[in-house]
Amino acid sequence: MLSAEDIVNKQFKTKRDGYDPDDVDDFLDEVVKELRRIQIENDGLNQKVLATESRVAELQRSGGPIAASATVGTAETGTSSQLLQLARKLHDQHIQEGYTERDRIIEEGKNHVTRMLAEAELRQRNEINVLDQQRIAVEREIERLKQFEKEYRQHLKQHLEKQLADLANSGQESANSF
Q1: For range 95-111, the mean pLDDT
Q2: Whose CA is closest to 95, among 105, 106, 87?
Q3: What's the angle, vertex CA 97, arms to CA 91 and CA 103, rounded to 5?
Q4: Are 32 and 7 in contact (CB under 8 A)?
Q5: Segment 78-84 long-range contacts (CB within 8 Å, at least 24 positions apart)
């Protein structure tokens, strides 16, 4: 059986792009709180059942109001039996209510987890889309810079070739004038 301490002490592995640990911790805290509340309520109901059963047994032993009101032994036994049946019925009813409440809380927890997972997946998809758009923008900028570098190198090469040609021409003119 899963206890509140099992939930509190549970450690989860973390993965990249996983669930937000704070969201998971917050949800587990809610589950633990509700589980403890149900356990306290269940303990209280069990105590009431035990007290009722104890009172029925005491009345049967002491010949209390049930026995005193009976005029014959069979009537006393019948009344005690009816009271015992009533106590058992109340006990069963309290137990069933506890199970129903437990099932309702578990279902709410599952629905909450489902909603949290859906929200986390949506956030993750949105983050991935944003990152993809940023990646595409960076790739475009890289391509633009590569094209700029290519054109710059071409212009620089042309400029240097022109400067060398001018230098060679001025060197030949100087040599021819001597």
Answers
A1: 89
A2: 87
A3: 140
A4: yes
A5: 80/56, 83/56, 83/59, 84/56
Residue 115: name the closest of 44, 178, 23 by CA. Answer: 23
Backbone angles phi and psi of 78, in degrees to 5: -65, -45
The answer to whether 66 and 60 have CB atoms below 8 angstroms apart is yes
pLDDT per residue over 16-63, tens digit each? 777 777 888 888 888 888 888 888 888 888 888 888 888 777 777 776
Examine the pLDDT at 135 and tell me if it is beyond 70: yes
**Amino acid identity of 59?**
L
DSSP line for 68-126:
HH-SSHHHHHHHHHHHHHHHHHHHHHHHHHHHHHHHHHHHHHHHHHHHHHHHHHHHHHH
Q: Which of 54, 89, 62, 60 is nearest to 76 (CA)?
A: 60
Which one, of 27, 41, 28, lies nearest residue 101 by Cα?
41
Q: pTM score, two decimals?
A: 0.37
In order of 26, 107, 172, the CA distances from 7 in angstroms are: 12, 17, 92
Determine contact, residues 55/72, Cβ cutoff 8 Å: no
Sign of the CA dihedral 106, 112, 117, 118? positive
